[in-house]
Each structure stands twice: as C-alpha cells, then as structure tokens.
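Batch job 17 of 40 flagged for manual review because the log was empty.
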Amino acid sequence: MERIESKDQLISYIAGGEKDPSDFKIGTEHEKFPFNINKNKPISYDGKNGIRSLLESFEEYGWKPVYENENVIALTRDNKLGGGSITLEPAGQFELSGAMLDTVHETFFELVEHKKQLSNIGEKMGLDFLAIGFTPDWSRDEMPIMPKKRYDIMRSYMPTKGNHGLDMMLRSCTSQVNLDYSSEMDMVKKLRLSFLLQPVATALFSNSPFSENSLNGFRSYRSEVWRDTDPDRTGILTFIFDDDMSYERYVNYAMEVPMYFINRNGEYINLTGYTFDDFINRRIEVVKDFYPTIDDWELHLTTIFPEARLKKFIEMRGADAGNINHVCALSAFWVGLMYDDNSLDAAIELTKNISPQELVELRNIVPSKGLNSKLDKLDLYQLASEVISISKDGLKRRNNLDKNNLDESHYLKYLEDIVIAKENPADSLMKKFKNNWNEDISKIYENCRF
C-alpha cells in the first residue's frame, strides 16, 4: 500500500481521475429495499430467505461473494460477464454499483439484466424489491442490521451529529450517476454545475412522500433527512464557487472532515472525532503505529456526503430511488448536460446568477416544495424545463443510436412527462394515496416495485 508522505499525493489521487473525453464513462448506482411479499416487511440477514441467501443466490449468474469475517457482504463480477458490484447498505438496502459504461443504452440493458436476476431469485424466495426513497411504513426499530463493522461505528456516531443520521442509514434509498472530467478546469465547471442543478434533480426525482404509515409533508423525505444527518460532511459546499477552487481546495476540505475509521487487516478501527489531517500528521495516539496510506484516503472520501461528491469522478447524489425508467432518466439527464460541451456551457450560462446562498436556500425548500419551489425570481419548475431541453440537445448531439435507431434522448421522456403533468413521482403517489388507494399504505408495495 502506498504510504502518504505529503498532501501532494492526496491531490494527485483525485487528479488521477482525469480522462480524455473519448474515454468518458457512465457509472450508475441504485438502491432498493428487499421485502417479504407475504408480509410487506424487511428481511433479516440470516434465515432461509434472508439477505445472506439472497446474495448467495446470485452466484449462479457469475457473481462472486465478498466476505467480512464469515459473512458474505457483497458481490463482484468479472468484466467479461458485465462487471460492477452488488453491495449492502446498513439495513440491507440492495445496491447495484454498475460497470463504467459508454452509453445510456448500455445502462438500460444493465438495469434490465439486473431486474431479471432479481425477479428470478425473488420469485423463488418470496421476495421483491421496493424502489422508493424512504421506507413508507417500517419503523427504525424494524430495520435489520447488516454484519458490517464499518456500519457499527457509523451507527454509534451518527446520533451525536444529527437527529436523522440513523434514518439516513437504515430507511433511505437513492439513485446516483457517476461521471468523468478531463482536467482540473473541467472538474471545477462540472462540480459547480452539479451543485447548482442538484435541487432540480431532487425535485424531478422526488419519490419519498411517505413515512410512519402516512404522508409526511415532503416530496423527498430522503432529502430532508439528509439535512439533519451530519453538518460536517453533507449539504452544499459553497467554497467550490470561490475563484481559487481546485483539486487542492477540495483536498483541504476533505482533510478537515472528521473521520469514521481506517481498515487494517479487515478490521475497522474507530477514529471518529479526528480529522484526516490529524491522521496523516500522526496526532492520533491509538493509531500511531500505522502509516497513513492512499487506501485510507480513498476510504475516507467515501464517508463524505455532500450533494455532489468528488472522488476520481463526480457523483450526483440528489435523487431518490426509483424504477428502471427513473434510474435511466437520471443517467441520461446528467450525461446530456455534462458530456456535451455546448450543453455544459448552456447550463452554466442558465444558472450563472444563482448565488451560493440562494443555492443553499433552494436546496432546503426543495424536499417539501418539489417542482413548486420558488426563490425570488427563480422558478424551479421553469429551470427544470429548460435544463431538460438542454440535456436533450446534448444527448442528440452525442448521436449514440441503439438497434432501433433511437438516440439516448428518448430516456428523458420520463422527465418530459413529469414536466408536462407538473407531477414528480412523489406528487403522483400522493394523488393515488388520496384518490385511488383509500389511504391504504400497503398499495405502495404493488405500485413501487423495482
């Protein structure tokens, strides 16, 4: 493992993500809640039809188990078979971290294959998967705990930093897309736009209006929960809009974010309360015999949770979980904006007058107001409409055609329908709950399966 001797190595790690635009990839991640279809309840790790058995069942499709102690806690797959990994969130939320792909068409086929495998295994086990941003009627106490040591440390620490950290860990699900940058300047442009448009993504993909058996007053309760999770590592990073924004500026920020842990020989060592700067400058007595490594830095970067996250790529983190069309639309939305220079410039021009302070305020009202969010002259619905149009133009210019001669822009129909109806997924669910379901929360299990 590469030892950390200076901050320059931390900067070089992130700069090492630079790619030629011809090599830009699309990585899609999506979570969903496994549940027992007879009881509409979450499943435990152990037991005949538990999470362990679910993971082991994927081996017939070429997935290989990853163990922590004697427990299988993840799956990986050879690139020849499609690549990617399957991991578990703290309460068993089932996450596919997809392979790095060239087109949204490939993302769609990856999702279809994943759904087919889930369906085949789920049918045998009496399970299905709920694709929604927050548990509609499962209490925090009902949620199972996965046998992953890192989550034990986080569960103990979270309540010391906010009121909803445990809800974030145990009861929320998200969809993400990960995209590349070609240079430091390109990273800065894309990261800024990622933050500026994350409230738009949250509004369009809001899909968590229920909790505790009823409506909760929010479109994206998942997003609201993040507001009271841990202020040290979440939210809008306003410093990215400063003139001196750079790889080093982000590294300086990340070095001051409190750590959770390091991993040595498969064991997690609790370092909560210390910063990465403390660690690399050998100020932590309990780990004075361990040299900081680049692997430690890589792990630390995964424990920082702003609305958009910089690693060796940029993660878009503002969307709730949803079905295949939902997830594909998310990838298409960001690809059309980020991977076409004309669209990137047009979106930057469109958002240039939004100040960092306005952005923070907008982010804070979107979970409840959704597409109805307004801030002075800023109408989020109008902004969303224009941004979708810009993204569509970018996807058309990419001109990646499938076997039916369709370019990637057709995946945006999901969002175009939302704009036409002026209803995001949460709005649609709220209407059904009141008008069609007789306020029967159990209907969610029929209507929101992955």
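Reviewer: the log was empty due to a logging misconfiguration, but the result itself is present. Residues 263 and 269 are 6 Å apart (CA to CA). Unflagging and moving on to job 18.
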